[in-house]
Amino acid sequence: MEFVSSELRPWLAGRFPNAVGDATYFGHSLGGLFGAYTLLTASSTFDRYIVSSPSLWWDGEVIFDIERERADTDRLRSEVFFGIGSLETDAGRRREALNLAEGHPAKPPPVHLDMVDDIRRFAAQLAARSDPTLQISRVEIVDEFHATVPGVVLNRALRSFYSTTEEDREI
Q: Which fold has domain 23-163?
């Protein structure tokens, strides 16, 4: 976050002044977790957040604790679009990895992990703030896995944020 704020944004402003006045973040997996963390701890860094399949399970789900600690004091002043593949459940992860050899780095460990449930809980926890400055959208993309969903989430979020007609904004 320090790099984004103190180096990247000034560098962009010097070369592309219009690129920093209205900033949208996109992150998938651990990048999605970073987006959720930035939203909670420095929300003004970006105007909009596209959080795709965030690894909310990371570090014992500490992101849920961070949100609870800040819920009563912080206004987030952001639009957030959460997206995830419907097959990012524990069973879906195992199905996705069926054809991978034992020991393959993408083979899921024998630990239960349901990212769909995690994102539902996190979005609900944010919504419970009743923060009028926070707009939340959440979509589960049918028949998509962790590896196949980022492009679809990005497309849906950009349409939701920037389309000029209601029909195009529907997710």
A: Rossmann fold (3.40.50)
